[in-house]
Description:
Blueprint: H1 2-35, H2 52-58, H3 61-92, H4 99-107, H5 114-125, H6 131-137, H7 154-179, H8 183-191, H9 196-207, H10 209-224, H11 228-233, H12 245-255, H13 259-292
Helix pairs in contact: 1-13, 2-13, 3-7, 3-10, 5-7, 7-10, 8-9, 10-13, 12-13
Amino acid sequence: xxxxxxSRVNMFVVVPTVVIVFIFVYGFVSxxxxxxxxxxxxxxxFNFVGLQQYVSLWxxxxxHASVSNLIxxxxxxxxxxxxxxxxxxxxxxxxxxxxxxxxxxxxxxLAISFIVTGTAWKWALNPGLGxxxxxxxxxxxxxxxxxxxxxxxxxxxxxxAAVWQGSGFAMAVFLATIRGVDAEIMKxxxxxxxxxxxxYWSVVMPLLRPAFLTVFIIMVALAIRTxxxxxxxxxxxxxxxxxxxxxxxxxxxxxxQRLGLAxxxxxxxxxxxxxxxxxxxxxxxxxxxxxxx
Length: 293
């Protein structure tokens, strides 16, 4: 009786969550897919036009610019955040003094929304009132850092702000994994004469594969879905230099009343997330299955 009651309670807790996820995630994804095959503008329409919206999407120069910006942003954000997070984790693993303080400092940006991060970095990098002005007031009149106003370099300012906020997460994942490594393995490596660099490179790094996979998947998904940071920091400018697919989708859905085209862009964003994640998840599952054998 007690087991039966426990199973019913579990179902009562889980089923509503599953239903909500299917309705508000997969249901709306499917709805967007339907709209992407219609000529919907301000309001949904069921006049199906086949792949016309996708043809229009990939013929749009602004979409091409936003995809190019996304590739640069994703590579820079994920790559730098992973490297910085790993180095910070290794540093904290040395049992330094005030480790708790440093860990809090590194993790603090995670507690801030991307809107706040974007606004703060927009002020800091503004040539008229940020870092430039501070350095000029200190007498370094030749100093110049106007990347945020430079169409060729503005995308890198987004990467700087995103790395500042995201590297703490990578650090936390790597540090938790490193602390889970058997101390006897590292002790044996020291007895064999391996130095600190050799220990981390040859002993610890191979054991960080699950952590790397976790960081990669979450960081890539976060990069592809980035919207609020870009809106708060650059608004997609100057011109379309920092425009991202999420902003393209928003502008065409609510600014230009082209709901069908915006839905097509949303589906392309969703497909890109799946295309990047599924191979890594599949390879990891196959690897785990081989170990179980």
